[in-house]
Amino acid sequence: MSTREVGYVEAIHEAQLIALASDPRVILIGEDLGLMATPGAPYAAYAKNRIWSTPISESGFVGMSVGAALTGLRPIVDLVISSFAYVAFDQIINQAGKAAGMFGWQRRVPVVFRAGMWYAQNMAAHHSDRPYALFTNTPGLKVALPATPADAKGLLLSAVRDDDPVLIFEDRNLFAERGPVPGGDAPVPLGRAAIRREGRDVTIVALAACVGHALRAAEKLAGEGVSAELIDPRTLVPFDRDAVFRSVAKTGRLVIADPGHKTGSFAAEIAALVAEECFDALKAPIRRVCTPDVQIPYSPALEHVLYPDPEKIAAAVRSVTSAR
Amino acid sequence: MARFDVMELHRRVLRIRRFEERALELQKAGAIPGPLHPSIGHEAACVGACAPLRDDDWMTGNHRSHGHPIAKGAALAPLFAELLGKKTGVCGGRGGSMHLADFSVGSLAETGIVGAGLPIAVGAALSSRVRGTDQVALTFFGDGASNHGTFHESLNLAAIWKLPAIFFCENNGYAATTSAAATTSVADISARAAGYGIPGVVVDGQDVIAVAEVVQHAVARARRGDGPSLVEAKTYRYCEHAEGAGMPGHYRAREEIARWRERDPVALSRARLLRDGAASEAALARLEAEVEREVEDAVRFAEASAFPDIGEATRPAFASEAAR
Question: How far is B265 from chain A (nearest CA, A)?
């Protein structure tokens, strides 16, 4: 099937419908899923046994997905908003993440957790988290951050066929984005970065919606004579370190744009990796553009200034390229 | 209802008792690196609960779970080797005493996190429904776990969908050193079943046949598609919460322990076999010698086994990488 313009959310549904149609072991689990399987709705064919619209019981239904995965199913769990994952922390980290290894690889835990990151939506601190870095600091969980509609579809298709638990953090700020998406069954492999723009002077590694911000920054910088290369890692675990190392070897400068809070961020991990492995290539200090370590406030006057944006990314780039 | 093989039940009760006694001896001798949570005193509950299960039914346990896989029919040698952290252990030495999952007998998950196994069993029951089999899932938990959110979420989830789950509480009266009376709003945990519209029954946990008969009804109900049940076995642990972990021992009256020991599950089972004419003294002596031999063989196997290769320590946490 040919590539068409598709929305980010629509692309996710395409992936789920393909996964359901192509594998009877795939089920959907999550809160408030009932309407999507009513007669005439896209998921109606799966209403009876494949769509499990749950009570508000995150520990319960996440644990349930682990049990289902251990006994032969491939659940896709919709956590709706990423901070709801905290309610099920034990089941995600201790059970999903550890069962395969702790039980000596007797079984795998093929489960996908989808979680939306509803930041910059005037929803205050409980709903605005971008917690992917937390889940990279515990073994056994894969973490994906689709930044385009094509990746929203393709990473989900790869995740549901992967034998390990995969968390997919979907960026609410991209829900209205449309972009080219291959039709049909078009998985995007986990662990392979995308080079969104080629450049010579500086490498920008950007996560989630920061990919778009960094692209706009790069366009602006091009007008100033700075050639920026933009890398979208697409998955944090596994992380395509070679793509980043190759780019830094070429440019000698690194700016990381990460909507997560700065301390203990994935940006810090990327910075550490590059400092360890590419020190000799670096011509300037590594810069991180992240969100300050504060509880996200409600007021639009307070919230929107916190996140990385094209101007902050461009400023960080200028700070490391000005002495060229 | 099918009659039970009473000699086989007695054999399993004895296997657990002797396994636990030898594990404690080896721990005192320094051969077991971690703490043990012995189920001595619980044997009839463990065996009675598993007696009506088929080999392809599922079971989840908890931290006090040596008895559960044995009751489900697991071979003793890989379990003992696991306690010693050996390569031949059921989990290859990665799980240890609290995590003796043996998937070959449907023992899916034993977890060191109290309450975590309940939703996993619900997921196995869901899996049975989705795949169209008549397998059931039984989860063991203690009185302490009945105060955990996962207990309530799991009962509700299984009840709304009439999933084939059996919630089996081994109420030994204590969560570590804290009495159930001090922490639990009801005298009988089975009373909580009413809140979820499912049957809740109390059974004498020291009487293996009584437990087996009660669980048999719950299993039949689950297989028929009539939904889950809560069974509460009143039982007692003779040992400390954790042996080898420096737990305090001054929270139970000596008279209380003595009173429970008068209703020892091994002695009661033995006496009943003699009383009912189901076994002679000579047959019981032969059985006891066989079990003694089986446990000694398991100990010898475990002691003779090698520790895992050091390279196993950094085996990748992911199925996809481990397979490479």
Answer: 30
Nearest to B101 among A59, A71, A103 (CB): A103
Set of chain B residues whose Cβ sits within 8 Å of the Cβ of A99: 101, 109
What is the three-class DSSP state of B145? helix
- Express each pLDDT in A119-136 by its tens digit: 999 999 999 999 999 999
| Residue ranges covered by each domain of chain B | 6-242+253-322
Alpha-carbon gap, residue B143 to B230, rounded angstroms? 12
Residue A96: closest C-alpha in chain B: B120
Cβ-nearest to B317 among A91, A101, A162: A101
Rounded to 10 degrees, what is the CA torsion of A30, A33, A34, A40?
-140
pLDDT at A61 over 80: yes
Architecture of the domain defined by B6-242+253-322: 3-Layer(aba) Sandwich (3.40)
Q: Please determine, for residue B322, whether its predicted confidence score (pLDDT) is greater than 60.
A: no
Residues B21 and B30: their CA atoms lie apart, in Å, by 14
Q: pLDDT of A79-105, one tens digit each?
A: 999 999 999 999 999 999 999 999 999
For A86, list phi and psi in degrees, rounded to 5. -60, -30
Mutation choice for B interface testing from A76, A87, A102 by most B CBs within 10 A:
A102
User: Is A67 near chain B, with CB under 8 Å?
Assistant: yes
